[in-house]
Amino acid sequence: MKFAHISDLHLGKKLKEASLEEDQRHILKEIVRISDEEKVDGILIAGDIFDDGNTFTNEASVMLDNFLTDLMEKGIAVFMISGNHDSMDKLNFGSRIMRKSGLYISGTFSGKADKFSLSKNDQTVDVYLLPFIKPIHVKRAYPEEKIDSYEDAIRCVLAHSEPSENKKIIVSHQTVFSGSMFPELSDSERMFIGGSESINSSVYDGFDYVALGHIHSPMNMGSDTVRYCGAPLKYALSRKERDKSVTIVDIEDDVKVTAIPLKPLRDVRVLRGPIDKLIEEGKKDPNREDYIGVLLEGQAMNPMERLREVFPNVLAMSYVQTGDTSATLIEDMDLDKLDADEEFEKYFESKTGEKMTESQKKLIHDLFEANGVVL
């Protein structure tokens, strides 16, 4: 039996001021096409369906409706959970009725991982759906259990879930690590890696495949059967964003995992150089309608206006010093590794193209200190 694994659709999301509605409609059609061509029996959607589940737009709702309808019309069963960005109650609405059509949704936490079975020929695969949970959710369901961490919470839930003698998959939306390996964050994500939210992948031992959501870059966690499939689009102007794919999971006696590349309507790129060179190269660039961030070397008059004549979707620009290989867009900075002084120095340089003087650094430091900023 074969499954497609996707997550973190973030329908309704914007990239800075740019609407991604057209891009998201395109990529959803690509996912349907790949799922159909690969002849998958089911698709696993591991959370964060909407970018903001409480204020999602009508357009985002229509996109999801069209996407799910297209999949089910092709006979593809859908297994979907809520993520931390979703409204659990809204996503769960009508879920029991929808099961009759092959749409299985676990939006709200029921006290266990909901189990659904999919059969084909002589094979049955049990799919467990576990929406994003916090320890407090599990404590309410099992007040007698000792639950001090996210890992305790997941172990408790799985211990109380219905057992299976078939091949089994779990769909989960949590921060998972393996040994000393932690997920690599893209710049469209902000969370505390290595802290209390982190769960050892051994929690899921016994499952034949672990379909993870929550991390936007595709990566395995200790095994190719414990996998983050990543978001289907790049959601940050960053040089660290990886190319996207659909994960295909073929479950027979063994489990075979492959990735099928996704081709976006527009890519997300960061360009660097002096303005005249960028404009000249842009005139010959067949993909100049991509979403662009610019690291501009040297000064220029009206740089955004001039750049947008060639690259209509330039969304951000920072001045950088020629030869400074550490220069980044504000969106590309790893802020968790900077203190307040360093953050401001980076910001100052990106906006002025100049480094702060020692007197300027001291002035800002004193202002931070006087106003209680953590340094």
**How do the helices and strands follow one another from N- to C-terminus?**
EEEHEHEHHEEEHHEEEEEEEEEHEHEHH
The CATH superfamily label of the largest domain reads Metallo-dependent phosphatases
Our Rg estimate from Cα atoms comes to 23 Å
- Portion of residues in beta strands equals 25-35%
Helix content, binned percent: 25-40%
Which CATH top level class of the largest domain fits? Alpha Beta
Order of strands, main sheet, comes to 6-5-4-1-15-16
CATH architecture of the largest domain: 4-Layer Sandwich
Q: And the CATH topology of the largest domain?
A: Purple Acid Phosphatase, chain A, domain 2
Total number of domains: 2
Nearest-integer average pLDDT: 88
Distance between the termini: 54 Å
Total number of strands: 19
Number of helices in the DSSP assignment? 10
Q: Which descriptor suits the 3D outline?
A: globular
Give a quick account of the main beta sheet: strands, pairing sense, barrel closure.
Answer: 6 strands, mixed
Spans of at least 5 consecutive residues whose pLDDT stays below 50 are 331-338
Q: Provide the structure class.
A: alpha/beta
Structure summarized in a few sentences:
The protein has 375 residues and is an alpha/beta fold.
List the SSEs and their pairings.
Blueprint: E1 2-6, E2 14-15, E3 18-19, H1 21-37, E4 42-46, H2 58-73, E5 77-81, H3 88-92, H4 95-98, E6 103-106, E7 114-120, E8 123-130, H5 135-141, H6 150-159, E9 167-173, E10 175-177, E11 198-200, E12 209-213, E13 219-223, E14 226-228, E15 245-251, E16 255-261, E17 268-273, H7 275-283, E18 291-297, H8 303-310, E19 314-320, H9 340-352, H10 358-370
